[in-house]
Amino acid sequence: MRRLPSVILVALASAALTACYDRGVSNPSVVTLPAPATLTSVTLDGAIWLGWDDTPYLDNQNDFSHYAVYSTSYDLDHNLCGSQWSEEGTTVAPAFLVGALTNGVPLCFAVSAFSVDGAESGLSPLRDDTPRPDARNVVVFSTDTLAGQQSGFRFWLDANGNGQVDAGELGLVRPASAGNNDFVLVDSAGSLWLTPQRAGVTMQVYGTSAISDLTDIDYAPDSGYAAAAISAAPMYGYVFQTTVGQYYMYGGLRVTAVGPKYVILDWSFQTDPGNPELVQRKR
Hints:
The protein is mostly beta strands.
C-alpha cells in the first residue's frame, strides 16, 4: 500500500498525542502506550479488514485498555490522507472489520492504543485501501457447450452509457457470440483456456503459484499483460487489464475448480479509476 512521507506521519502522530493531553491527561505518572508499529488491510466487497501488531498489549498488559480505529478520506492523485478523522470503533483485539463502505471510494486508516488511564498513543502507520465488488462461485462453460450462451464473462458493461457502475452491470456471464466479452472460455485439445475477446483486454497469471483466496490479489501488476489465452488452473489467480475511456481498469479472478467443460471462479473488479487496488492510471 502507499504510505505518507515520514514527516507527515510524525506530524499526525504528534497531533494525536497533543489531543490526548488536551483532554486533560497531563499527569506525568499516566502511562502512554506505544502505537502499533504495523497496519495491514484486506480489500473486501463493501468492507475493509484491518490487522496490526499487538505490541501495545503484549508489552503492557496491565496498562492496556483498548485500540481505537480511525478513518479519513484518501486523495489518490496526491497520495495524501485527509485531515478529518472519524472513529470507526474500538476493540481489544489487534484486528477490526470496517463495514458498510461504498465500493470504489478510497479511505485512509490508522489505529491508536489507549491505556487504562485514558491516555492515547500516537497513530500507527497509515494505510489506504478501497473496497471493491466481488462475487464467488461463478460458473462459466466452454464455447462448445450450451451453444456458447454461458461462455463469456464481462467484469463491467456500462449498459446505459452513463459512466457509472450500476446494478446489473458487474460480473456478467454472457454468450460468446456477443463478441465484446472480456474473455471467453475455450476448450482446446481437452484444456480450458481463458481467452481475451474484446479489443484492449489483456491478462496475466497473478504470481507464480496458487493463491489461497481471491483477496490475495491486491495490486494489479504494472506490466506483463498480453492478449494471449492462458490455461485455467485450479487455485491460480489472474489479473485482467481492461480499457475504459482514458483509464486502465483491472479485474481479478481466482479459479476455484476446473471441470471437463466449465470453470468455477471468484472475481473482483475495482470501480474507481486510477486507484492502486486493482486499478492503474493509464500512462
